[in-house]
Structures are given as C-alpha cells and as structure tokens.
Design a protein that fits this description.
The structure is a single chain. The protein has four helices and no strands. The longest helix has 22 residues, at 30-51. It has two domains: 1-51, no CATH class; 52-92. α1 (13-25) packs antiparallel against α2, α2 (30-51) packs across α3 and α3 runs antiparallel to α4. It is 71% helix and 0% strand.
Length: 92
C-alpha cells in the first residue's frame, strides 16, 4: 500500500464529499464546527481504518469500555501502535 491515501480512491469518498459540502454551506465558526463535527470524525475514522486496519481494530476492541487494569494497559499499547502506524504514513 502506498504511504499516501487518496480520498478519491477509497471507500471514504462519500464522506469526504459530504464534509466538503458541509464546509461550503455553513459559514466558518462554531456553528460549522458543530454541524460538521460528525462528518469530520467519520471521515477521520474511515481514513484511519484504511491506513492502519489492524491497529484501528485493536483500538476499537480494547478501548471501547473500561475494564481491568490489564485491558487498560492493552488499550494504551494498541493506541501506541496505531499512533506509530499513522506516523509511518506521514510525509517527512
């Protein structure tokens, strides 16, 4: 997989278009932030799930709720691996 993710070439294209429409229709400011927040988060999650699918699944599964100290530790480790994976996709 290429280190760059093209939104147009992914399953995230629909979310990207919807977020662009939201930004185009709503003036900049708190109202735009509130109105577009859900789309922004959905697009971010979609892109992360494509860039680092295994790490994303681990974070979703291990960090979805509280639990034992062991589960919290596993959640932190999964978050670290996800962060490392995402960093590997960034341009220097």
């Amino acid at each position: 997989m290429s280190s760059e993710i093209s939104v147009v070439d992914t399953k995230c294209e629909r979310l990207h278009r919807a977020l662009c429409d939201c930004h185009r229709k709503i003036p900049e400011g708190p109202s735009r932030e509130a109105a577009c927040r859900r789309l922004n988060r959905s697009l971010a999650e979609c892109l992360v799930s494509i860039a680092c699918p295994d790490e994303w699944e681990a974070v979703k599964n291990l960090c979805s709720s509280g639990g034992t100290s062991m589960k919290r530790s596993q959640c932190q480790q999964a978050q670290f691996f996800l962060s490392h994976c995402l960093a590997s996709h960034q341009n220097p």
